[in-house]
Amino acid sequence: MNSATIAFILCLAYIIGLLSTILPLPWGGIVVLILGIIATFFVPRFWRKGPKRWIWLVAGLVGLAATLYFQVRIPRPPTNDISRETGAMEQLVTVRGTVESMPRLTRTRKAQFWLEATQLNEIIGKDRPVQLGKEVSGKLYVTVPLLQATGLHTDQRIAVMGRLYKPKLVSNPGGFDFRNYLAQEGAFAGLAGQKVEFLTEEQGAKIGWWAIRQRIIRSHTLGLGVPEGPLVSAMVLGSQSVNFYLPVELKDQFTRIGLAHTLAASGFQVSLILYVVLLLTKGLSVRSQFIAGVIALGIFLALTGPQPPILRAVVMGVAALIAPLLQRKINPIGSLLLAATFLLLLNPTWIWDLSFQLSFLATLGLVVTVPAISKRLDWMPPVLAAAIAIPVAASIWTLPLQLYVFKIISPYSIPINIITTPFVTILSIGGFISAILGVLWPIAGGRIAWLLYYPTHWLIGLVEFFYELPGNSVAVGAISQYQLLVLYILIALVCLFRWWRNYWWFAGLLAATVIVIPVWQTQTALFQATILEAGKQPVLVIQDKGKVTLVNSGDSSTGKYDIIPFLQHQGVNQVDWAIATNTTNDNKSGWLTILGYLPIANFYSNSSAENGTPGQTEIQKVLQARKGNYQPLIPGQIMTFGTTSVRLINAEVPMLQLLIDGQNWLFIGALKSEEQKQLLITEKFPKVDVLWTSGERVTAELLKVVQPKVVIVSADKVDLETLANVNQAKINLFITGKDGAVQWKPSGKFETSLELTEGYNALL
Predict the structure, then answer these.
(1) Mean pLDDT in residue range 749-764
(2) On the CB side of 590, how many CA atoms lie within 13 Å of its CA?
(3) Total domain count for the chain?
(4) CB 3.0-4.6 Å disulfide test: which of 219, 247, 364, 529 passes with 442?
(5) Highest mean pLDDT range out of 288-302, 371-385, 526-540?
(6) Residue range of the domain that includes 139
(7) Could you tell me which residue ranges the DUF4131 domain spans (predicted)?
């Protein structure tokens, strides 16, 4: 048994050990060790020329050690970390520190960067003396207005005035886990900055890799304009280096139709670099080629930054350069496994980094699956066969993980990848040439970049065309880890065994069955009502055996970050009935955002179309273009949506009565105490099971009249009077700002997204 096989087994054991950390401690490591012990006794019986018994035992121990190493390397806040300054949270402070990253543009049109904090100054203390000049440490997620980020660059010392905060837990099913995202980056708090001050000793400009990146971006933009210039820069340097200049909308379009990888510097760019270097140095010795290649890859890594996909690609590229130097044939799978192990030794937590996972799986697909697909396409010209085989192979291996994480699939992903491959190749090569010239002479780099205008413009046009097509993304809902495992087992069977390879269509049918049937069964049987956590904006989603009713949309941010992720998590691809209790400008933007992702079959507003607001008129136009119906919701009229009945009692408050599976719900907008008392005089209230309000106050008189069993408040907190009234009446109280989304099912039980970890006093 040669050393390469032993190294392969030990590397694989290390990676399996890291993957086993998905299990609670210490079971992951114990399971891997038990598997190693079992292999010690049984594998040699079937693999007589395989490794000796002790190798399998060592592999089990390596897997166990990997789980322990993972726990040691998990980022944890030190004792003086700024996130531990609980008294300063939500207070106005000034934080001094060093800029760790170039600013990027957020979806809310602010600048975001990472700051390594060194000193904390409180401006306003909270029930205690103000702290000045306190030494702290830790990484901060900082957002500031765009103008405040002007002139910021890495390694710069600054002071930021703003409010410290701790990231919240996920409050809605399918929502973005901001706390986990920060933890993966080694940060445990954020700073909503208002003003940035450049410290006097750091006012002088510095030269660094950031300056070279800026020079390349400037050169591309000079020759191509916006958004063409930043798009070419993203293909050369990766979107993370160009985030401040690349329009968010364009990036979303690339992502939604399955072209996100073209904006991430990784294996394709490394291959181009090596190709150019080896072409230019073909007359030199192998050693000279190796040195030139390593230098070129080192410069590329410094320009883009040490991101997991780039590190993986660079390590693979170095392995490709070493093989000729040692006069050995490259084993692609072994090189990939070695590269992954090396990177995970540097940082074992990358095993759960999505970019690392997708990059590794895509490369594995290219190594394992491209040859088989190319063989079946040998009747085509080689260039065309490769253009088809590469995106198909990468998609096969990354699709299950994408389904598991994003809950959506892009039907046009493979066709658009095949069509755009020539454009991406031309733009990447041309972008590299213009980048090199741009560093030396920006005007010359801009002139070369100008030649790329039409290919770039046509690529953007293709992306926009596919983005506008109906069904550019389909939500499949959340799939389990077991379904994910089954999908990858089927892929592995097709790659490893001839019978499965001959009947690949059968494996594909099984894979579709594993996804479609459970989702279909869940959709056709599910009945639930969910009030989402959206601040003071009341949002209700009723899922009635495949039919969906949405009450209110909130603003654009609520629609994009709360409603759409929840619907995708549930596998919803159409809203059958939408009810808008008002269509002000903020709420109009929410509905328009939702319509950008999902069709709405029937839209109901509490105001007639003839006397509609500008917001209503715009919604009507979009609905008409997408063949949706717009109808007024007339006060007093009972309307039926599936098994749910709805009656608008008062259009001005607004006040809405819903009969959901036999349970009586009453929604009332935010009203002050006097307004509630006046409403009790003018309106006749029914007795209800659930009282739902978007205000922070509920009077005792209202509770006495409607006699609810449950009160749900769509707000961050309630006042003392409401808390006393509800407690005195012995009514169950849910506050979305504290409990997260509140979900009801026909069993009669209410469930919340967040567990009760604090008393109500924290909210008052």
Answers:
(1) 56
(2) 26
(3) 4
(4) 219
(5) 526-540
(6) 82-206
(7) 23-198
Determine what percent of the chain is predicted with pLDDT higher than 70: 93
Give the confidence band of 27 by pLDDT, cuts at 50, 70, 90: confident
- Beta strands 710-713 and 690-693 are parallel
Report CA 387 to chain centroid distance, whole Å.
28
Q: Please indicate, yes or no, if residue 454 is contained in any of the structural domains.
A: no
Q: Do 314 and 269 meet the contact criterion of CB atoms below 8 Å apart? A: no
Give whole-number Cα distances, 440 to 8, 299, 397, 426, in Å.
Answer: 44, 15, 40, 22
Main-chain phi, psi angles of 162, to 5 degrees:
180, -160
Mean pLDDT across the stretch 645-670? 87
Contact 220, 439 (CB under 8 A): no
Nearest CA-CA partner of 260 in 362, 156, 388: 362
The residue with greater pLDDT, 115 or 408, is: 115
Phi, psi of 730 (to 5 degrees): 55, 50
The answer to whether residues 270 and 359 touch, using CB atoms and an 8 Å cutoff, is no
DSSP H helical ranges for 626-694: 673-682
Parallel, antiparallel or unpaired: strands 742-744 and 750-752: antiparallel
Residue whose tokens read 């970890």? 757
Which tokens hold the place of 764? 């008052």
Q: 10 Å Cβ neighbour count for 583? A: 24
Same domain, yes or no, for 57 and 136?
no
Residue 758 is predicted with a pLDDT of 40
89/73 Cα distance (integer angstroms): 27
The mean pLDDT value for 29-44 works out to: 85
Q: Is 108 exposed, middle or buried (0-12, 13-18, 19+ CB in 10 A)?
A: exposed
Shared domain check, 157 and 34: no
Residue 443 lies in a domain: no
CATH of residue 688's domain is 3.60.15.10
Length of the chain: 764
Model confidence band, residue 621 (pLDDT cutoffs 50, 70, 90): confident
* Cα separation, 181 vs 196, whole angstroms: 24
Among the candidates 28, 51, 73, a domain finishes at 73
Tell me how far the alpha carbon of residue 248 is from its chain's centroid: 14
Q: Please state the rounded mean pLDDT for residues 582-602.
A: 80
Q: Which residue has the tokens 């026909």?
A: 746
Is residue 51 assigned to a domain? yes
Q: What is the H or E stretch that residue 665 is in?
A: strand 663-668
Same domain, 33 and 177: no
Instruction: Measure CA of the first residue to CA of the last residue in the chain; give whole Å.
Output: 69
Comparison of pLDDT for 424 and 756, the residue scoring more: 424
What residue has token string 């690609």? 313
Helix, strand, or coil (residue 643): coil
For the CA atoms of 452, 458, 463, 466, what is the dihedral angle to 10 degrees?
-160
Predicted TM-score of the model (pTM): 0.84
Q: Which range is least confidently modeled, 196-200, 456-460, 558-562?
A: 196-200
